[in-house]
């Protein structure tokens, strides 16, 4: 059974580790280390271990975070390309010296089906990519981000519930800290990331 309380409390159970997570998250490129750390939280949660992992093996954490980014990028590539194709004329005028609002609206209307499909596919890809990432985090191989298990587990009620609650929780943190430029989003992202992957690690180990 998923322990939501432990997942919510987890980022704050060790102040030093929490602050290190925020520090790594603040620095571009280096923030892949923080992303890898969040995956490690998910892996340990799948074993019902809720203590924040020790910071160390920064190279491995960086690689994990980088591979997580690559997995997400691959899943999101198709809907993004479809959207760019459907809205290409709108982009051309939007970034020209004299944007034409009428032309942008015309492009949206004439390509609304393609744009709608791309948006729906983007939502689906983002939803499934969490399953892909946690499967990679637990099993440790890049190819595990694209296995059949990723899709099987993603379309279960328990996975949906955990993703929904986790994303809403992160969104609340984003809203709460939105008055702090950049740093607020970073804090919300790290807190939400540790919590979401702690939830996903638990539910992933229980879904067969």
Key terms for this structure?
single chain, 208 residues, mainly alpha
How does this structure look, described?
With 208 residues, the protein is an all-alpha fold. The mean pLDDT is 89. Helix 3 (31-45) crosses helix 7 (112-139), helix 4 runs antiparallel to helix 7 (112-139) and helix 7 packs across helix 10. The chain has a domain at 4-76 and 137-206. The protein starts with a helix and ends with a helix. The chain is 76% helix and 0% strand.
Q: What's the tally of helices?
A: 10
Number of strands: 0
Give me the secondary-structure category.
mainly alpha
Strand content bin: under 5%
In quaternary terms, these chains amount to single chain
Any idea what the radius of gyration is?
Answer: 19 Å
In short:
This protein has 208 residues and is mostly helical.
List the helices and strands and how they pair.
Elements: H1 4-9, H2 15-26, H3 31-45, H4 58-86, H5 88-94, H6 101-110, H7 112-139, H8 148-154, H9 157-176, H10 183-206
Helix pairs in contact: 2-3, 2-10, 3-4, 3-7, 3-10, 4-7, 5-6, 7-8, 7-10, 9-10
């Amino acid at each position: 059974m998923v322990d939501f309380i432990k997942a919510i409390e987890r980022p704050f159970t060790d102040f030093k580790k929490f602050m290190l997570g925020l520090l790594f998250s603040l620095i571009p490129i280096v923030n892949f280390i923080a992303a890898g750390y969040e995956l490690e939280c998910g892996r340990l949660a799948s074993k019902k271990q809720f203590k924040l992992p020790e910071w160390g093996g920064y190279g491995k954490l960086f690689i994990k975070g980088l591979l997580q980014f690559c997995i997400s990028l691959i899943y999101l590539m198709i809907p993004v390309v479809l959207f760019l194709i459907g809205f290409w004329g709108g982009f051309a005028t939007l970034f020209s010296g004299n944007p034409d609002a009428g032309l942008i609206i015309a492009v949206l209307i004439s390509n609304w089906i393609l744009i709608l499909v791309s948006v729906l596919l983007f939502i689906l890809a983002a939803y499934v990519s969490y399953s892909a990432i946690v499967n990679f985090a637990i099993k440790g191989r890049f190819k595990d981000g694209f296995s059949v298990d990723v899709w099987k587990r993603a379309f279960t009620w328990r996975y949906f519930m955990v993703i929904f609650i986790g994303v809403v929780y992160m969104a609340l943190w984003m809203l709460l800290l939105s008055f702090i430029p950049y740093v607020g989003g970073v804090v919300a992202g790290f807190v939400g990331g540790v919590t979401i992957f702690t939830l996903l690690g638990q539910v992933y180990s229980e879904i067969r």
